[in-house]
Design goal:
This protein has about 260 residues and is α/β, with parallel strands linked by helices. Helices cover about 55% and strands about 15% of the residues. It has 15 helices and nine strands. A hairpin with a 2-residue loop joins strand 1 and strand 2. Helix 2 crosses helix 3, helix 3 crosses helix 8 and helix 5 packs across helix 6. It starts with a strand and ends in a 10-residue tail after the last strand.
């Protein structure tokens, strides 16, 4: 079962079910990618066709925003719980260690990826088989990413953790899927910084009350003020527009994602 808020589909799954579905994607060895939408992503997809297309092709879409969880009953089906990339990364690294999955880090700085690799190995015995910190444009092409993709292919990962931030990571995962498959990619935003300890996450109570955005705004006002204070208030209009759609367009059975572009 899926909900659609604006242009963004969201799978109605629990945290445990999400981990099981990611494991199933990895074990099938058919590729795919996982996205974690929040309010900001819903707003971005309204004006970004490339991001909208990426969400339409995602293998799994997991809600990364407490406000979306709270509002989901109005859409027609309650989302069980918030499932952020930052919460997923730890159990995924642990699962990778137990199942001997090969993991690749893409994004963040070389210092952050090196520290995150060390933490994953020491804590879970995770086999991080490669790291890349390339410049990625908002319009990624095969030509511009060939060197990075060659490194990923050579490393033969089962999972690629993509820490580029939205919308870069979603568009990159979608457009270049055929070139990093059969690995499964997950967009995790700033999560490698959290693993490395170079950034601190909001306290759990802040996240539960849906105020993680305010915590991040206080920590990084110069970078985030426009996103949270100017762009994200547009979400209210998108939500009201969604409510005017027939329920069959807001709540629907999940279909296999469309064919991925070569």
């Amino acid at each position: 079962m899926r909900l659609r808020i604006g242009h963004v589909p969201i799978d109605v799954v629990t945290f445990h079910e999400a981990l099981q579905q990611i494991a199933s994607l990895v074990e099938k060895r058919q590729g795919g990618f996982v996205v974690t939408p929040n309010v900001d992503h819903v707003v971005l997809t309204d004006s970004n066709p490339a991001l909208r297309e990426a969400y339409a092709h995602a293998s799994l879409s997991l809600v990364d925003g407490q406000p979306l969880v709270w509002l989901s009953p109005w859409i027609g089906k309650k989302l069980p719980e918030k499932i952020s990339g930052s919460d997923l990364v730890w159990p995924l690294l642990e699962m990778a260690g137990k199942k001997s999955w090969r993991v690749y880090f893409l994004g963040a700085s070389p210092e952050v990826t090196a520290k995150a690799q060390q933490v994953a190995l020491e804590r879970y015995g995770t086999n991080v088989v490669g790291c890349s910190s390339p410049f990625i444009s908002t319009n990624p092409t095969l030509e511009d990413n060939q060197e990075t993709l060659d490194k990923i292919k050579e490393a033969k990962p089962d999972i690629v953790l993509v820490a580029l931030g939205a919308p870069k990571q979603e568009v990159w995962m979608h457009r270049l899927l055929e070139h990093y498959a059969p690995a499964v990619a997950l967009g995790i935003g700033a999560s490698l910084d959290f693993v490395a300890g170079t950034l601190r996450r909001a306290p759990p109570w802040v996240s539960r009350w849906g105020l993680e955005w305010a915590y991040r705004l206080v920590k990084e006002p110069g970078r985030l003020w426009r996103r949270y204070l100017l762009n994200d208030p547009k979400f209210l209009l998108i939500f009201l527009r969604t409510l005017r759609r027939p329920k069959s367009e807001r709540v629907f059975c999940r279909q296999p994602p469309p064919s991925h572009p070569l």
